[in-house]
Amino acid sequence: EVASVHSRLLEPGYGYIRISQFQITTDEDFTEAIAALTHVAKGSLHGLVLDLRNNPGGVMQSSVAVADSLLENGLIVYTKGRLPSSQLKYRASGNDLLDGAPVVVLINAGSASAAEIVAGALKHHKRATLLGTIAG
């Protein structure tokens, strides 16, 4: 298993996190990266760049958890199918790890599936600015 989360401080108070794909532990690794960046920034981050470029997706629950960790409330994603058991809704739990600090999400035509869930939820709730291009 390859580490899917890499982080660094861009400049004092501003973090950068790259998620290369969503694995089972990506949500925990993301939370740890935020904590580490916050510690290095001496207590708080003023902003975050979340890089999802060329992220092919992966484990949906991890992407939901990453989005949840940046949202105060609201619907993250829902699934709908023919059977009632296939209809699920995932909502934010109200635990924004950045306390509203600005987020920029980098995307491109290689950002797919679970990466689109994160980018879409953050954009929909006006929690992040998306930068980049998408296919189609």
Describe the structure.
There is one protein chain. The protein is an alpha/beta fold and 136 residues long. Helices cover 26% and strands 27% of the residues. It has helices at 26-40, 60-68, 114-124, and strands at 5-11, 14-19, 47-51, 75-79, 88-91, 103-107, 128-132. α1 runs parallel beside α2 (60-68) and α2 (60-68) packs parallel to α3. It is globular, with a radius of gyration of 14 Å.
**Count of discrete alpha- or pi-helical segments spanning 4 or more residues:** 3
Question: Per the principal axes of the C-alpha atoms, what is the gross shape?
Answer: globular
Strand content: 25-35%
What is the number of E strands?
7
**Low-confidence regions:** none
Radius of gyration from the alpha-carbon trace, in angstroms: 14 Å
Average residue-wise pLDDT: 95
Topology order in helix (H) and strand (E) letters: EEHEHEEEHE
Strand order of the largest sheet: 1-2-3-6-7
Helix proportion:
25-40%
